[in-house]
Design goal:
One of its GO terms (biological process) is spore germination. This is GerAB/ArcD/ProY family transporter. This protein is mainly alpha-helical. It contains seven helices and no strands. Helix 2 packs antiparallel against helix 4.
Length: 148
């Protein structure tokens, strides 16, 4: 008999938690939230100084483009709910164009993640940590995301 009576139950539960998969809906919601929160929260400061009095037009155009991207994403997810776009994209646009698009998406999301990290770093250093070196906050942020 085990010393801890729930050891087999815990190991099964732990195994089941680690083996869960991300659904299409979860992945789509993550992309939508990441896209809209980044554009709304961090890119507006770059858009407004150059837009002057046409700022409302820029926001409307970006909103329409975001809705179009979201509609296309959900329409493709409804077509094949059990598959990811990375797997069946070559059937839609061809193999080489699909590879180029996926590499572009990868660089786009890495760029946005770097932009968000830079904005958060600037905010934290200006408001909360004015005497901290500017490289320390991103280093701590990147170390905190390291997997166990």
């Amino acid at each position: 008999m085990d010393v801890w009576p729930y050891s087999t139950h815990r190991s099964k539960l732990r195994r089941r938690l680690f083996m869960q998969r991300v659904t299409q809906l979860q992945l789509g919601l993550m992309f939508v939230l990441f896209h809209f929160s980044t554009a709304t929260g961090f890119l507006m400061g770059l858009i407004f100084p150059t837009a002057d009095y046409q700022g409302w037009l820029v926001i409307l155009t970006a909103f329409a483009g975001g809705l179009l991207i979201t509609y296309i994403s959900f329409a493709l997810a409804k077509r094949r709910p059990s598959e990811f776009l990375v797997h069946y994209g070559k059937d839609l646009v061809g193999r080489w164009l699909h590879i180029i698009l996926m590499i572009g998406f990868g660089f786009f999301f890495i760029h946005l993640a770097g932009l968000v990290l830079r904005e958060i770093t600037d905010f934290l250093i200006q408001v909360y940590l004015p005497t901290t070196p500017s490289w320390m906050v991103p280093a701590c942020s990147l170390l905190s995301f390291q997997s166990p």
